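Fold this sequence, please.
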Amino acid sequence: MFDEIKSLLNNKRSKQLTDVRNIGLYIFGIVVLAIAWSGAKTVQNNYELQKQINQLKQENVVLGLNNDNTGLQNGFYKTNEYLDLSARQDLGLAAPGEKVLLVPKSVAMKYVDPALETSQNSSGISPADTRPKYIRHLEDWRDFLLGRKLFSD
């Protein structure tokens, strides 16, 4: 057995593989592969960073649009039209020449669906849902998928 290993090492082909010049080429090949691997990792990192930059730019644009929208809303709140609408809705006021009709709650509630009346308390706010959260989510998904409730209340 030992003689066979010794004969393999003394073989001409094995001497060529273990020659100093060839070992230098092997080391050079390993260095080239390491550099190529490092370059590929750098390209991958740059790609990921570019994706993050693009996402942040998009978020920045959306936030800028939200700021513009808020500015427009603030401008609307300063107009006389908004003051007129809020006085009509919140305070029950009317413009000159208009008449305000006050309808008693008992008369108005005769024309409301009784199912809606029982689901709300006296302040007009829905009572707290005491069902577990996962059951509410499942029922919401069921209603959405079956087209029963297209918009939230």
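Residues 20-77 form the longest helix (58 residues). The mean pLDDT is 83.
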